[in-house]
Amino acid sequence: MGGCTVVKVPKKGTYFEESGSNNQLRKFVRNGELEEGFMLLEGMVYHGEIPDIIACTSLIRGFCKRGKTRKATRVMDIIEDSGAVPDVITYNVLISGYCRAGEIDNALQVLDRMSVAPNVVTYNTILRSLCDSGKLKQAMEVLDRQLKKDCYPDVITYTILIEATCKESGVAQAMKLLDEMRSRGCKPDVVTFNVLVNGICKEGRLDEAIKFLNSMPSYGCQPNVITHNIILRSMCSTGRWMDAEILLADMLRKGCSPSVVTFNILINFLCQKGLLGRAIDVLEKMHKHGCTPNSLSYNPLLHGFCKEKKMERAIEYLEIMVSRVEILNQLSTKGCSPVLITYNTVIDGLAKVGKTDQAIKLLDEMLAKGLKPDIITYSSLVGGLSREGKVDDAIKFFHDFERMGVRPNAITYNSIMLGLCKARQTDRAIDFLAYMVMRGRKPTEST
């Protein structure tokens, strides 16, 4: 073969020429064939080849993403034993993988074993993980260690620590870190100031937060829309609606364009106060300011209409929302999507006022749009049908959603048993109670 060494990959029996092994390693990693890549790497090192650091870094990243941090560490061991020199990026990827997996002690062990100098990214990754875990004291010890290594903290470092200090020790202590930051020649940015503004608001010192916002330009930093939203949310939560209107006008005067979140804060506050007309006015002004309402803009309104039993208005605004909002873009892969909450709100409202036929039509509409109903959807329907005396229909829905993999809760069982008792079918209610216990649901006081 022209003098090229042939490499045998352990267990797989596949052969590669030495000159192409690193290319094959890159290909395995690129295709997500991590186990094959790992075996190839073992074979390469066994035959004295030096693996490509970039490909090995990608292999470590791939294993970390899959939660296989031990395998990622084994890759690092192999690299180090091979005579190749991992760079700071390789170590950072492994440290980041450990931190994401909540294995902070292992991340610190990697920091100790690094054969190259850690950089600010290394320390920021560890500091973030420690602070998110409520280990501020340990984070400050890591900062001291960083300073002794002449690795100077950047604005991200200090912002992480200031945020954690606000939560754990209060804003006064965080301000000391801000002073230290400045004394080291590190200029705070708008994110740093937003963390402090948020901390001041959470301590209930809204007027001080407003003064702090107004003083930001003197520090060479202009407040952004997030800064204003933090203050706005605090104003609304403390009932200072007039101040909120003034702040919004001030934002516009200064050329700080409101975001959809700005308007959603206002709509939510007005709906909580029962001022649905004013909330609609705010909703209709959004387009004028270049903002497109999302389902979170409509949810408080729909909830308000349902609370006031104005179901015609609720359905009207649900239809407006469906025509304006791109539903598929708002389907959430994690947790409950905002659009699902919207439908659940109206279905529950209709069920409570005895309009289950309309509620079932909305369920069909949901399914047609690719929305998957949850336990709240079905519990609302089962409860409504039971209250209307349609207990057999309620039981049919109950078994339908069991087949769809939705596990009924105690409220759902109780609704059906109450419906059966009202229909004087006590024997069936007792049977249903037995079924509930058999399915592993604990009866409640209401049961």
From TrEMBL:
UniProt superkingdom: Eukaryota
Molecular function as annotated in GO: mRNA binding
Keyword set includes Glycoprotein: no
PPR repeat residue intervals: 52-86, 87-117, 119-153, 154-188, 189-223, 224-258, 259-293, 294-324, 339-373, 374-408, 409-443
UniProt keyword list: Repeat
Pfam families xrefs: PPR_1, PPR_2
Family: Belongs to the PPR family. P subfamily.
Name of the protein: Pentatricopeptide repeat-containing protein
Organism taxonomic ancestry: Eukaryota, Viridiplantae, Streptophyta, Embryophyta, Tracheophyta
